[in-house]
Amino acid sequence: MPVQISGGSISYGGTPVIAHLHLPIGAAAIVGLFGPNGCGQSTILQELCGFPEVSRASTLAIQARPDRVGYVPQDFHSAFLPWLSPLDNIALPLTFDGVARRPSRAAALKCMDEFEMRGFAFSSVPSGGQIQATVVARELAREPGLLLLDEAFSSIDYGTRLSLLCAVREFVQRNEIPVLSVSHSAEETALFSDRVFVMSAGQNRFRRAVEVGKGRARTTSDLGTEWLNEATGTIQRLFHLANFRGESA
User: Fold this and answer.
1) Nearest Cα residue to 162 out of 154, 171, 172
2) How far is CA 131 from CA 48, 63, 155, 179, 202, in A?
3) Which terminus of the chain is more solvent-facing, meaning fewer CB atoms within 10 Å of its CB: N or C?
4) For the segment 191-212, what is each residue's pLDDT rounded down to a tens digit?
């Protein structure tokens, strides 16, 4: 189901952090936010999650906010239970949803297979990248009505990260899950997203929107291709204009 954010603002201490926001997220669409630290990207995700400290300072109108929102925070270690295996980390929320332990673990293993994670399903000492991938898979296993990713692939090695980006993209499109994603890599943002909002740290934070690879399936074979290089370059140029030259949209 599409999600629509419009009007209003988010403030801290009476100072607007985000103002005049208009952000449509279509069903099965992946929207990327690309901007500098401190421009309010994480704040938007936290508002969509309903974090009380953010929501109290927000006047945003959110239409069709789903009941089940998946969220992968920057601090992904805080979302991982180290006394459980990666498999059981993924299965646990399913048991909270009323699924019995055995089928919840079977569903979690199926999810890990889809994203080629079975090799560390039972690891007692997963790496940082494996922990981050587990947290992503856990949110996908519940098939949320909206998925929020805050630098959700940052600790995963380059090759695995790109493969996982493409696999996650295919999964959310197949299951018609709208996604709002924050990344500080222009290339990854272009490869993953359908539409990218380039942001700045100034008052007019949403500067320009870029449509990326319309209707195109994404694979790691796209690396170095003309369309991806062009999309990456466009995002980088708009970021430079918005943040170093101060040009408005």
Assistant:
1) 154
2) 24, 33, 9, 21, 34
3) C
4) 999 999 998 876 556 667 889 9
